[in-house]
Specification:
The structure is a single chain. By secondary structure, the protein is mainly alpha-helical. It contains 17 helices and 4 strands. The chain starts with a helix and ends in a 28-residue tail after the last strand.
Length: about 450
């Protein structure tokens, strides 16, 4: 087949794939899944501080990228929390668009079939941990690919060099596991250095040094974290991709497709089609899916699954096996199946949100988590319930679900402090905590008596 025609087909295929991924993300944003885990804490932090919400120095660049549209909206005086939530979602979606466009730019004039690995990475790394869509690891995984694609180009234009330098600067403070891809980048650059004439070697040395800085900076933050508990939790989650089917199956199926293309074992093609379809049927019958904790722990896929995909992509790039119509069919089934599974499983978070809102409507005052059916809900978090209650109560706060007792005052104690006063109105029962609150219209007319929880 004509290579130019093949490239056109690939461009259409990857564009449609990205649209499918975007629809999955839009579905998640529509049910506020981007507020899961740390998402609501970052969201409220920006609203309260009217500034960037920072937690870890090594992740500042990711937080700048995710939060700047929201911060601009807050500075512009927007106070509608529903509108602000969508703007925050846009900030989380923006890196996906940037990475996709940068990948296409990096592969201009080249065979774009290596982008199959970029798409597989989004499914196996990003979407498999979508209970923390606001996580910094999401951006790090996305930006890994345009850097890699720029590095494998034979010739760099001036704009390529500038783009690569900017991306590496951003990459240096996205997420600690960035040091793993940087090791691969250095190996690629060393091979380039040996193959090149004197001209251009100084730029290669510059990129090697930049990656060394990334490795040193992020290694230091891994071994000296802000929270030793988080380090322990992270290390314990390293094997999560083995027990998370949303990570393991996409990786396994993609490996089989690659082997099929390299060795032409047609029975592998059949299996690579059958497994995604079987998994989709299974999830239609049993939509419970993975819980929030397993999804959160799958952020470690940036150390396990992502490097595997990077190495496989380099093998693919070197051998350049032709991806024919049968392979495209298998990959299409792969995409449709796993993206459909993502949408099916999002119903668990939707049900959780509806249950929370029902509790908030039917009660007033403070509600202990232990007194609700939410206590054993595997899709909730133990520490952000008070924050979620406030955001989902907009525009009038009548009741607040408290965190589990071990997180009673983290990240704040709603029984002692009222937040979001510029964005929310409160029932009069909360005047005992802060007389300066704005009161809801017709507050208290249709509520159960207010209560305070010890």
């Amino acid at each position: 087949m004509n290579s130019r025609k093949t490239n056109s087909y690939d461009l259409i295929f990857f564009t449609l794939s990205f649209i499918g991924i975007s629809l999955c993300l839009l579905n998640s944003f529509s049910i506020d899944k981007h507020l899961s885990a740390d998402g609501v804490n970052y969201f409220i932090g920006v609203l309260e501080q009217k500034n960037f919400m920072h937690i870890d120095w090594s992740r500042y660049h990711a937080q700048y990228i995710n939060q700047f549209p929201l911060l601009l909206a807050v500075k512009a005086g927007i106070t509608n929390i529903k509108v602000l939530s969508w703007i925050y979602a846009f900030g989380i979606y923006l890196p996906y668009v940037l990475s996709f466009v940068l990948c296409l730019y990096a592969l201009r004039g080249l065979d774009k079939q290596i982008m199959f690995f970029y798409i597989a990475s989004i499914i196996a790394v990003n979407l498999s941990s979508d209970y923390i869509l606001a996580g910094e690891h999401q951006i790090m995984a996305l930006f890994t690919w345009p850097i890699l694609f720029l590095l494998v180009r034979k010739h760099w234009s001036l704009f390529d060099i500038i783009t690569l330098m900017v991306l590496l600067v951003i990459y240096s403070r996205l997420y600690q596991s960035a040091f793993f891809p940087s090791i691969v980048y250095i190996i690629i650059l060393i091979f380039r250095y040996k193959a090149k004439e004197k001209k251009g070697k100084s730029m290669i040395i510059t990129f090697i040094l930049m990656n060394l800085v990334i490795i040193i900076m992020n290694s230091w933050t891994i071994f000296s974290p802000l929270s030793p508990e988080n380090r322990g939790s992270f290390l314990m989650s390293l094997t999560n991709f083995i027990i998370n089917p949303d990570s393991l199956l996409p990786l396994f199926v993609f490996c089989m497709l690659l082997i099929y293309r390299l060795l032409d074992w047609k029975w592998l093609l059949f299996i690579s089609i059958a497994i995604p379809v079987a998994y989709l049927i299974y999830r239609l019958a049993f939509p419970e899916g993975i819980d929030a904790g397993l999804s959160f722990g799958s952020r470690t896929n940036t150390i396990t699954v992502l490097p595997i995909l990077i190495l496989l992509s380099l093998v693919f790039w070197k051998m350049k096996p032709f991806v024919g119509n049968l392979s495209r069919l298998a990959i299409s089934v792969y995409l449709v199946s796993f993206l459909s599974v993502n949408i099916i499983q999002s119903g668990n978070w939707r049900n959780y949100k509806e249950e929370v809102k029902e509790i908030l409507i039917e009660n007033s005052g403070f509600i202990s988590m232990e007194s609700t059916n939410l206590l054993n809900n595997q899709y909730k978090w133990s520490w952000n319930n008070s924050q979620i209650s406030l955001v989902w109560s907009y525009p009038c706060v009548k009741s607040v679900i408290l965190n589990e007792k071990r997180f009673a005052s983290f990240p704040f104690d709603p029984q002692k402090k009222i937040i979001l006063k510029d964005y929310l109105k409160y029932d009069p029962i909360y005047k005992a905590i802060d007389p300066g609150i704005q009161l809801c219209e017709n507050a208290g007319l249709y509520q159960k008596p207010g209560n305070m929880v010890d």
